[in-house]
Amino acid sequence: MKFQLFILLSTLFIIASGIGSTQSSGAKGILKCDSKPDAKVVVKLYDDDRGIDTDDLMGTTKTDSDGHFEVSGHTSEISTIDPKLNIYTDCNDKATPCQRKITIKIPDSYVTKGKNPEKIYDAGVIQLAGKFPGEERDCLH
């Protein structure tokens, strides 16, 4: 009985994966550590999937020498995607193992049907020196 349930759920998951629509999102901004640009910071764009499904990586980039970043990407989902940015930084934290992971959720109004986002979320200038709600540590990103 357990095996049959496993096969049924696996089949439904495969079917559901194929009937989703392609959706995209993107974001841009400037990262600073204290008053200086935070260069070479990894920024990843994900579709935040809840439940047993893992988050879908949609795009990745690093900040330039001025702290600027822009990232976009797409994935297929049945319902509207929930885009988020993960920022991995060592701002004011160089001696501590792993990096600080800061997550910023992108509003649904910045989700576009298709592979190319029509609007890019402007996260503005983000000062990474402070602490953020829900901040975590990540060694494997």
Automatic annotation (TrEMBL):
One of its GO terms (cellular component) is extracellular region. Residues 1-20 form the signal peptide. It comes from the Eukaryota. Its main location: secreted. The keyword Protein biosynthesis does not apply. Keywords: Secreted, Signal. The keyword Signal applies. Belongs to the nematode transthyretin-like family. PANTHER family: TRANSTHYRETIN-LIKE FAMILY PROTEIN-RELATED, TRANSTHYRETIN-LIKE PROTEIN 5. This is Uncharacterized protein. It comes from Panagrolaimus davidi.
